[in-house]
Write a sequence for this structure.
């Protein structure tokens, strides 16, 4: 989500990461946010219509300087939808209703909101084989609709209420594009979660869920946009 899709948007995809062996801490982002924007180099827009596709994904476990086990990584994905950018943007920043249409968000409540800014409390997670993995976070969201018609929303972790996360960043980038003579919306979603003390096998489980969960979250925003545009 969106964000945090985080988007998410997206904050809805804390487990959307894949396995890639050992690694090291990711550097802190410049300016307080880590995000991706712009149409990915080499993107075949026609092939991306209604087809969320991973651009890049990586995750690894490591021990930090205190010896605490941590899991870091990121997922970067994109797609194109035959939907108006303004309508998609409205759905993307409707954080208080995320639990009704974004997968894995059990609840979301907006505690502060002003023009281009919000603070949102999320309860996010996943149930797998009878086990529930969930996180409670407070995330700050910043967004802007630019003069060139593109849109960028960025989220960052303010507080991990259960102490399970040490960082979380997401971004959602939208741009008008032309495909087959029609104006459509290019969607790029980035998610960078950081989990403290991952349980044994968590990296493997994350790898299993990466493609499906990423597609489900992007598709959910598109479906909700289309639903709101449909006559009652």
């Amino acid at each position: 989500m969106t964000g945090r899709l985080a988007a998410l948007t997206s904050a809805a995809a804390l487990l959307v990461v894949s396995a890639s062996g050992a690694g090291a801490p990711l550097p802190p982002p410049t300016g307080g946010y880590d995000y991706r924007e712009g149409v990915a180099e080499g993107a075949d827009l026609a092939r991306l219509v209604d087809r969320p596709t991973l651009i890049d994904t990586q995750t690894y476990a490591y021990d930090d300087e205190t010896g605490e086990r941590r899991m870091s990584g990121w997922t970067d994905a994109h797609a194109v939808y035959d939907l108006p950018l303004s309508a998609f943007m409205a759905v993307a920043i409707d954080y208080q209703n995320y639990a009704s249409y974004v997968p894995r968000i059990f609840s979301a409540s907006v505690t502060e909101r002003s023009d281009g800014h919000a603070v949102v409390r999320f309860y996010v997670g996943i149930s797998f084989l009878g086990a529930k993995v969930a996180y409670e976070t407070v995330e700050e969201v910043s967004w802007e609709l630019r003069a060139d018609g593109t849109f960028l929303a960025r989220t960052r972790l303010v507080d991990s209420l259960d102490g399970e996360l040490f960082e979380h960043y997401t971004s959602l980038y939208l741009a008008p594009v032309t495909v087959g003579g029609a104006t459509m919306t290019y969607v790029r979603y980035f998610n960078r979660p950081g989990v403290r003390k991952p349980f044994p096998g968590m990296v493997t489980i994350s790898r299993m869920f990466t493609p499906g969960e990423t597609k489900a979250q992007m598709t959910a925003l598109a479906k909700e946009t289309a639903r709101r545009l449909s006559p009652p």
Strands lie at 53-63, 69-81, 105-114, 117-128, 131-145, 151-160, 165-179, 182-196. Helices lie at 85-92, 202-229.
